[in-house]
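Example 3.2
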Amino acid sequence: MTSLEVRRPFSARAARPWANGAGTTTELVDFGESALLTPESSRWRLSVARLDRAAPFSRLPGHRRMFVPIGGDVVLDIDGRAQEAPEGMVVEFDGGSEVTMSWLSSPCHAVNLMVDDFSARSPSLSSATTELAIDDGVVVVVALSAGPEFGMFDLLTPSHRTEGLEMPGRASVVTFGR
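Structure, written as tokens:
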């Protein structure tokens, strides 16, 4: 039976300023730890950002980025084109793109996955606003609502990979294609 265990409580992590100084982020998995979790794949970084106001994103050439707003809707301007991103929708873009969050409905958060885009085998990010089936492709889960044994934004990992499990509540999931 598969179960989820808290790998890293969100409350135990310190927020750090963005590279461009326009906001803060709390890192859940850094590039080095991702190499230990998934040594056969691209390196990746998973974080939760606090979004308080419209702001530019830092350019990160050589990376693929996936962004999921949580707790509000936003509009991203990606290379001059507006992309509406309602809560829970994954928006993927090139890290070298010029990106500005031009509007947000209210202060909120976003789950971010940044991936070195130099490998054919790299993770993807999905988000579910209802119960979620956890399967063998799942590497980590970010709880988007608190549960009896975990808090909001806690990093969870499957403890066994023999059967499916349903995650109660909302979650964002880092997976690898099968």
